[in-house]
Amino acid sequence: MGAPPYSTHRVELTRLPAGVAESDVVAVEEPLEIRIGGRPVAVTMRTPGNDDELALGFCLSEGLRPEAAHAPADLAANTVDVDAPGFDPERLARSFYTSSSCGVCGKGALEAVAVEAAPVESRLVVSASLVASLPDRLREAQAAFAATGGLHATGLFDEGGALLCLREDVGRHNAMDKVVGWAFRQGLLPLARSVLCVSGRLSFELVQKAAVAGCPVLVAVGAPSSLAIELAADRRITLAGFVRDGRLNVYTEPWRIEG
Q1: Catalytic pick from 59, 102, 105, 197?
Q2: Of 139, 163, 169, 237, which alpha carbon lies 20 to 30 A from 145's?
């Protein structure tokens, strides 16, 4: 589970105040066009690597019911074509546009991103000590972050704390999509006996993606937003934030985490 391909790029810089010229590595960011049946439906700024997983995860979170993802027939660069036989082009009033900072930007209203996802009924219970250990386990596996300091990560863990899949990206929502897309390909959805851990804050969209994946526990190093908490409560997802130094705040469905 090393760094994704093409995730870093070497650049020249000047360190001040010493004025020393050095080289360093930064995270790569490039656009990816997602097509369904050859028709463009979204453009996202992402770190190249695992693009098929990203496209599958994105389409799943938008309720587009994908079946597979592959290179387009015209072999266009930075493009993935998704097979989604039930896709209705009229459902999209306009193409999505997502940025690396916030996948919801530009959609205008929460109703526009709401996706039908059944409440998570999993009876999974995990220990507080296991949850508290996940961010460190995630960071230890982040090869590209270690090189650049500029990538978000999402990790999928089993109920015993073993890391099943880790993906890094300049966009936190892209990292989550890549993990969900991987799980879809592995036939693991819904993730009823798994835990998702993210390296940053918890946004509405990350909770939405966890709900679509059927994951009962979502963990983050950072803070949740008010809407993330509302959605987690509505979908019966256990939301834990500020998980660091052996401590954690549990905002919803605390019964799943044993002290």
Answers
A1: 102
A2: 237
